[in-house]
UniProtKB/TrEMBL annotation:
CDD domains: cupin_Yhhw_C, cupin_Yhhw_N. Binds 1 Fe cation per subunit. This is Pirin-like protein. GO terms for molecular function: metal ion binding. Fe cation binds at residues 57, 59, 101, 103.
Amino acid sequence: MITLRPAAERGHTNHGWLETYHTFSFADFHDPRRIGFRELRVINDDRVAAGEGFSPHSHRDMEIITYMVEGQLEHRDNLGNGAVLKPGDVQHMTAGTGVVHSEFNHSQEKPLRLLQIWIFPEKKGLVPDYQDRHFDPQDRVDRLRLIASTDGRDNSLIINQDVDLYDSSLTHGTEVQLALRPERHAWLQVINGELALNGQTLKTGDGAAISAETALKIRGQSENAEFLLFDLK
């Protein structure tokens, strides 16, 4: 069963310096039908104006992944970590018992776009942790590339939950496939472009909840169809 989550039905918030689209309920946007999916709690598509950002704020008991799409993000946290993230970079934080961080657009001239993802951890009270890694954008072309997992295989980031996170960029007409193990679920989120998921068309910003399927066939229907795919318990 595949249930589409059209981009137009997402929550939308515009603070001037920040414009964001909420796939699931978040902050002032509440949709009782869409609190999350399985262990996936948040997918926010954020666009941050030049020189603007999030002042220091805290999180706890959440696995937080930042996926860079455009621009440069400057990160600082109370664990002593600092970085400027660019397209191709993926950041992971285990908030655990508590972490305080800030995120700003490093550029004074250009906006940035990122996907902020929250996943419930396997247990509460974990020791806070930080990772970031650069993944060559060319390595995701016309293939599913693992970027986060519970065991860190294939040089992926390690997260504290039984989730495999893939990214991909498909050229027109190219197909990739993923076999789902019994009792597994999936979520597909389109970043840019158009694709077909088991014959159903999805476009930029669309998502899809997937259950009771044994195989996923994803075909590019635009020049560059960029997406994330979550394999969930």
